[in-house]
């Protein structure tokens, strides 16, 4: 069968530095907010100090990725390895580590895709106000300049900020918010600063890496109305705007979404960016959109007078009086961790995204978290993961067939790593890492059944779909 996927399609996989590298204080690395995870979470899950110890095992990991046949590998660079205090001196040891990793990937013809920032804000910057402080944007630009200059000849694809929308909407769930009340007061300023930092970094990129490609990586999902009631359709419109489009409009269209500006006004928030800022936002455009997709959302009408019972608690869903509230979708099955599984939602998301922005799309995350079991003969029979990927890739092929332009697919995750807030027991990898929540065992790597399945799929460029 002829494959629907382009011949140079980037079949890849993803990780992020703080969830995968470990070595949290090695070779001059500074501390990030993620190194204080104990502050936020119960003591029955691991921290990010060792994780999968990729820092010391990157050669073995890349060799296994090559055996799996990966064409691309998306990883993030830890800001605190490059600039330990966030905004000061460059740490050459940090540059060296990523240089070696990139060389190793190139050795096996694996295209490196670099995420610049994945939730691991330097703690020194967090202490002085995080993204609210101007020093954080300064530091980010300094960090960007250092990595663009060091890797411009080796890395073509760059991703600016991972899930900027999740940071704003659910920063407390991913260990980035100390005080939720304060956060709710400042988060729209933070959002503007992040948008500005992203735009400035793109402009800097054009100067330093003129032949490279750069894009954002929000978490985007199709939003369904809970019923055919017209008021539920209105909630769908509102929620898509608040969850998805407002974040992409800024970067792709160069301006804030008008409904979002109105939303801020109604929330009593005085949002008045300067003309100079708005001109910078207009000047910076991405080459592609990468996005993370795990699940769709379903919403229903919520009256303006209805009481909000769980303000901003992503665990329970979102409720915004006058705009809508999320509800469960009775048509979808769930993962062991309660996430709704919606492969057709991926096709819907791809088509909506492409229709709206007309930019090539890269899926930078998609996957299923599960309590995988290592058998006594060191096998992992993760047929549920194979089924999950089969269904999602099949819908991706249909989206391409319908006219969507795609660059690649980098599911989460290449190798097992520590989840943002549910420990190592929630595994996502094609490659198993032998450790438990607190017992580090031997950290040995074992290919799961999904590893062999993905290898075959890559070999025939997804021609079964
Ligand atoms: C994405 C993040 O939101 O989802 C990853 O970019 C994260 O960092 C992934 O690990 C899966 O979420 P979780 O909470 O199960 O780790």
Automatic annotation (TrEMBL):
The keyword Hydrolase applies. It comes from the Bacteria. One of its GO terms (cellular component) is cytosol. GO terms for molecular function: beta-glucosidase activity. GO terms for biological process: carbohydrate catabolic process. InterPro entries: GH (IPR017853), GH_1_N_CS (IPR033132), Glyco_hydro_1 (IPR001360), Glyco_hydro_1_AS (IPR018120). The keyword Hydrolase applies. Keywords: Glycosidase, Hydrolase. The active site is at residue 365. Signal peptide: none annotated. Belongs to the glycosyl hydrolase 1 family. PANTHER family: ARYL-PHOSPHO-BETA-D-GLUCOSIDASE BGLC (PTHR10353:SF136), GLYCOSYL HYDROLASE (PTHR10353). This is 6-phospho-beta-glucosidase.
């Amino acid at each position: 069968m002829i494959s629907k996927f382009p011949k140079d399609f980037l079949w890849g996989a993803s990780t992020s530095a703080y969830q995968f590298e470990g070595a949290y204080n090695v070779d001059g690395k500074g501390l990030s907010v993620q190194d204080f995870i104990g502050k936020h979470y119960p003591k029955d899950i691991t921290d990010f100090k060792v994780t999968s110890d990729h820092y010391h095992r990157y050669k073995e990991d890349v060799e296994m990725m090559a055996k799996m046949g990966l064409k691309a590998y998306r990883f993030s660079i830890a800001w605190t390895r490059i600039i330990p205090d966030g905004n000061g001196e460059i740490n050459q040891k940090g540059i060296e580590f990523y240089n070696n990793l990139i060389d190793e990937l190139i050795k096996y013809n694996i295209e490196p895709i670099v995420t610049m920032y994945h939730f691991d804000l330097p703690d020194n910057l967090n202490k002085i106000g995080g993204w609210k402080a101007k020093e954080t944007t300064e530091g980010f630009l300094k960090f960007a300049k250092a990595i663009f200059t060091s890797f411009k000849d080796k890395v073509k694809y760059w991703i600016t900020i991972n899930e900027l929308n999740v940071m704003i909407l659910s920063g407390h769930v991913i260990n980035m918010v100390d005080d939720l009340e304060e956060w709710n007061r400042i988060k729209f300023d933070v959002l503007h600063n992040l948008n500005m930092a992203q735009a400035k970094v793109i402009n800097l990129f054009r100067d330093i890496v003129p032949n490279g490609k750069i894009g954002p990586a929000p978490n985007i999902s199709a939003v369904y109305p809970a019923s055919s009631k017209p008021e539920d359709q209105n909630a769908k419109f509102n929620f898509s705007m608040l969850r998805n489009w407002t974040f992409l409009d800024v970067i792709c269209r160069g301006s804030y979404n008008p409904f979002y500006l109105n939303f801020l006004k109604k929330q009593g928030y005085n949002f008045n960016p300067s003309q100079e800022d708005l001109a910078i936002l207009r000047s910076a455009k991405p080459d592609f959109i990468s996005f993370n997709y795990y699940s769709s959302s379903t919403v229903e009408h919520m009256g303006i007078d209805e009481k909000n019972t769980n303000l901003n608690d992503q665990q329970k869903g979102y409720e915004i009086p006058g705009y809508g509230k999320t509800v469960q979708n009775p048509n979808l099955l769930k993962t062991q961790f309660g996430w709704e599984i919606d492969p057709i939602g991926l096709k819907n998301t791809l088509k909506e995204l492409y229709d709206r922005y007309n930019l090539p799309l890269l899926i930078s995350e998609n996957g299923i978290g599960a309590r995988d079991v290592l058998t006594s003969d060191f096998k992992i029979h993760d047929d549920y993961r194979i089924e999950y990927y089969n269904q999602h890739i099949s819908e991706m092929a249909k989206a391409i067939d319908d006219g969507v332009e795609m660059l690649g697919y980098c599911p989460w995750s290449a190798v097992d790593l520590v989840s943002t807030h549910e420990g190592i027991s929630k595994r996502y990898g094609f490659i198993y890492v032998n450790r438990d929540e607190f017992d580090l065992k031997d950290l040995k790597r074992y290919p799961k059944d999904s590893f062999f399945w993905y290898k075959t799929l890559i070999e025939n460029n997804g021609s079964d779909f």
